[in-house]
Design goal:
Layout: E1 2-11, E2 14-22, E3 30-39, H1 44-50, H2 58-61, E4 80-87, E5 99-102, E6 109-113, E7 118-119, H3 126-129, H4 132-145, E8 152-156, H5 160-169, E9 176-180, H6 184-192, E10 197-199, E11 214-219, H7 224-233, E12 234-242, H8 255-260, E13 263-266, H9 282-296, E14 302-307, H10 311-320, E15 327-331
Parallel strand pairs: 8-9, 8-11, 9-10, 11-12, 12-13, 14-15
Antiparallel strand pairs: 1-2, 3-4, 3-6, 3-15, 4-5, 5-7
Helix pairs in contact: 4-5, 4-9
């Protein structure tokens, strides 16, 4: 067995890079991938780092990219790009040296079934490809929210997923996109990506920003308080797409919500919305993802590249100085 290293969340705010081994006797339908880079989620993954998760979250426990037990210590990760260095004798559609994407925890090398990988198009760079999950999530928000020509749209949270959502919403003809985030760097990029205005929710009355309220709001900040603001900002009978995971924080709806007849839309990227399954599949959606990545080239949103074995500093940066970051990636190959 070859020496390997994996990232583990040991307890709240403590990362450990553990030495492990990787088996060489892979199955006929398996491959070994050597990692080039992986992206850190500043939303869900930061909650894991802080210990702000619920042990009862069965959806996360059943995700093959994570540890079997959703409690410390655990592995977690969702976006990894690497190259194939070995393959089983029944793997015919992947080649040695080929670049692939995996929904996988942070790790130098790993064995995985070939059908769990996605081939990266030759005209897409590894640094652009690592944005695949976040672009897919943003597309899912658009599909769930169904923005129409000329609508006023609010996006709460301008982390990487929020920024990508803003970019896509701004493609709707004659739409006006208003965004909200605490950090100036994110607000500046939000305007560059198409927002009409990007505002600090602590310095403005968000309810009064959009005349007559938003037709559609997307909450992707991870804050249950922001969800309350999104509901207040949305006009009568408008739509609110809830894209955040709030961990164990309770969600409260006041009287204004009930009088507004606002439609709350739960959004989760793992599945296609039931009403679309007659026409849409995951494969079709991934085709759109690659097209968006080709046009946007999101690698320009990477703000820090940090060596894998210095991952503790990467998470400390996200935890303590988030205003300096947009997308942080871990790098592996020398």
């Amino acid at each position: 067995m070859d020496k390997n290293y994996s990232l583990w969340f040991m307890k709240s705010r403590q990362i450990e890079i553990k030495e492990s081994s990787i088996r060489s006797d892979i199955g006929p339908d398996e491959v070994i991938v050597e990692t080039i880079l992986s992206a850190i989620s500043p939303g869900t993954e930061l909650k894991i780092y802080r210990g702000e998760f619920c042990t009862s979250d069965s959806d996360e426990k059943n995700n093959s990219a994570f540890s079997d037990s959703f409690q410390f210590p655990l592995q977690y990760g969702y976006s990894l790009v690497g190259k194939i260095i070995s393959k089983g004798n029944q793997v015919s559609d992947l080649e040695i040296g080929q670049l692939v994407f995996a929904f996988h925890a942070h790790e130098e090398k790993f064995v995985i079934k070939a059908d769990e990988l996605r081939s990266i198009p030759k005209d897409v760079s590894p640094e652009d490809a690592v944005f695949l999950p976040n672009v897919e999530t943003a597309i899912n928000f658009v599909h769930d929210g169904k923005p129409m020509l000329g609508e006023k749209i609010a996006v709460f949270g301008q982390g990487i997923v929020g920024l990508l959502t803003t970019y896509l919403m701004a493609q709707v003809p004659f739409s006006e996109v208003y965004t909200f985030d605490f950090f100036e760097k994110r607000r500046q990029i939000s305007v560059q990506l198409g927002a009409k205005e990007s505002l600090d929710p602590t310095k403005v009355n968000v309810v009064g920003v959009i005349p007559n309220g938003a037709d559609l709001s997307v909450e992707v900040s991870g804050s249950s308080h922001a969800l309350a603001q999104a509901i207040q900002t949305t006009g009568y009978n408008g739509r609110v797409v809830v894209g955040s995971w709030y961990g164990c924080h309770p969600i409260q709806f006041g009287n204004a919500f009930h009088r507004s007849h606002i439609n709350i839309i739960a959004s989760q990227v793992s599945l296609i919305r039931p009403e679309f399954t007659g026409r849409w599949t995951k494969e079709r959606r991934f085709e759109v993802v690659w097209n968006v990545i080709r046009k946007l080239q999101p690698s320009k949103l990477i703000t820090q590249r940090i060596p894998f074995k210095e991952a503790q500093s990467a998470f400390e940066l996200l935890d303590k100085r988030p205003e300096e970051t947009i997308q942080v990636v871990l790098t592996y190959l020398k």
